[in-house]
Amino acid sequence: MKERRTDILIVGGGLGGVAAALAALRLGRSVILTEETDWLGGQLTAQAVPPDEHPWIESTGCTASYRLLRAKIRDYYRRNYPLTLEARNNVNLNPGQGNVSPLCHEPRVALAAIDELLAPYRASRQLDVLLRHRPVAVEMDGDSVAGVTLLDENTGESIVCQASYVLDATELGDLLELGQIEHVIGAESQAQTGELHALPGEPNPLDQQAVTWCFAVDYLPGEEHVIERPAMYDFWRTYQADFWPGKQLGWLDVHPITLQTRHRAIFDGPTDRLDGDDFWHYRRILYRRHFLEGVYPSDITLVNWPQIDYWLGPLVGVSAEEKAEHLEECRQLSLSFLYWMQTEAPRHDGGYGYPGLRLRYDVVGTSDGLAKHVYVREARRIQAEFTVLEEHVGVAQRRAAGLDRAERFFDSVGVGSYRIDLHPSTGLRTYVDISSYPFQIPLGALLPVRVENLLPACKNLGVTHITNGCYRLHPVEWNIGEAAGAVAAYALNCGSTPRQVRNAPNHLQDFQRLLQEKLGFVLAWPEYAAVTPR
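Given the sequence above, the corresponding structure tokens read:
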């Protein structure tokens, strides 16, 4: 069996993993970065989800490297695409003009931008990237990770990696289970956390947010692009959850905040207009009128809509066989929804079905047209030295205590802002979508209660089922990962541990100064944002 040694091993090449690698590399450390798919970038690329961002993202509320990533994405379009003069000169170009973000774009473009960010370090061999490598075992030595065994999916061979620090940036927190590192899954109870929106009765580890298998489509009226009828189409065509107002395959859904029934279809008018409230405009990733006339026959939109949220079973806390079954059912749901839209969906202009909807295999880089990886909203979470609760960030609970902003954390290593947004869950309950204040990321939430050389670098930090809802989005995950990579490198550079960095005031102040001055972190919100609920 092959063996490798590095300063910092980062398992999982999503946004958190990439950001962690960049921080550690910039602080002079060698890094091995692994990824189970063949694309780095996680939810932004392999999961094909355009970035969910806050309203201040163009000016504050993210790290300098995340801002550079966004700039590189826009620059890629300007360098390589036939943009109109107006679009090319737009400093805040939104290639897809989608409603969900000021930077909706194709997954491959983000992949190219990430490759550019990492290229100098790969050339010098300071960074080694192992694609299609999946963790299969973790060897512990007391309170430390001694090694991680990775399976090369291409060759079937295994490799053991050893490192001074190991970062778990996997989508589901896989190293926590493999190393039997203390962690939590599912939904806590109010008795456990004191959270206003936690479960009122017993905790339920198998109550986890829905996952979604995304796909991209364009629309060519008059053409025929109907896919083969999916194997589970008859099931999904008739399925309706007790908490849902209509069939899963339909235009009725639930407004996440008000929980009122709403009708929202793929089209409510012309497809190529700039703005719209229909699903076509929701996560559109290419707006053809941003480009020279005649180059693109259609916009492209990314389908990550309520109809393809899969909540019939969780991915963690179950056997490998049950997980595989749930993933296949999730795939079948997405394909069934596309087939329904192509053949049976009520049309905005009368009749049924949009056979001109074309599945864009090329956009997501797969043979079946679905994203390379399922979109994951909730993972295993470390039992942390400090856990972020709803009382720290939730508007209702803060206001009930007479407070007008989120908790100020002395050990802040970044900021984020998003609603506490929980999709329907495998506990078969509807949305929990509540307001939160712009928040900080405490270093204590990155420190496991026992293990000294493992850090979370994705959605697996010290949050709850509730607060995960606002700590899981793109710029926040990036910041979490970058902070984890930075504290690991800093600890190595100064001969301390991350726990000592947090708990020794001189170390913490020095580390926070490094984050701000060398890596361009924002550690606190400006006043105008801090008091503005999302």
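The chain has a mean pLDDT of 97. Try to locate this feature in the token string yourself.
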